[in-house]
Amino acid sequence: MRIEDIAAAQVLLHEQLKTDWAKLLNGLALGSCPALSQILRPLEPEYYWSADETEWATDIMFKSVEALEELFPSFVHHAMRVCDSSSVMKYLGRRNLAGAALMRLSATIEDAMKVYGSSTV
How far is the CA of 31 from the CAs of 37, 94, 114, in angstroms? Predict the structure, then answer.
């Protein structure tokens, strides 16, 4: 992804920390069903907002694709040396109680077989 104005992007990111998320989300909820407060009167229920997944990230930016491409093999080599599959799965939030990586196959397995006549092979 390219960011043309890094300073402006940083301002937007800092604004997220100042946002009153409950107020913003309550406004969106009210907008989606404006009659709800009248329907529930005299009750005045409040929403409890939570996030299923959140992230506080430290991202690294490169000045060019070439600069990243030069370092990328080293990154891959390092990752292969220090990360095993269970730590990758833990990072991705997929770990069972025993600590082993989970494996789920949800794809449909199909097979096709071509049949030839005895004189065609």
Answer: 11, 36, 58
